[in-house]
Design goal:
Layout lengths: L2 H10 L10 H15 L2 H10 L1 H14 L16 H9 L17
Helix pairs in contact: 1-2, 2-4
Length: 106
């Protein structure tokens, strides 16, 4: 998935908490958030714009690895973020799982 496809998919599904998101979709969106978050004037406005899309893509990414979206609550525990990052780095579950078809096969 190209960077522009990934970012547009995140914004198209900004309140879609079901389904699955590929690694590339998640990490391109994170890179965009990081870059725009570094600009002081844009930082607060951008954070408000991407609040829901960031949660939604995180939940869909966890679904892609076969985990519940409730695992995203680990982001509230500082040391537990390491576990969450490992989950985000994991490859997709092959084939369909309880959250839908594998996006790589689409």
């Amino acid at each position: 998935m190209s960077p522009f496809q990934a970012i547009s998919t995140c914004f198209k599904n900004y309140v879609n908490f079901s389904g699955r998101a590929r690694r590339s979709e998640y990490w391109w969106f994170c890179l965009l958030n990081f870059i725009l978050g570094m600009i002081p004037v844009v930082n607060i406005i951008w954070a408000l714009i991407v609040f829901l899309p960031t949660i939604a893509v995180g939940i869909r990414r966890l679904h892609d690895t076969g985990r519940s979206g409730w695992w995203l609550l680990l982001a509230l525990v500082p040391i537990a973020n390491i576990v969450l990052i490992v989950f985000f780095l994991c490859d997709s579950q092959p084939g369909a799982n309880q959250y839908g078809e594998n996006p790589k096969g689409m």
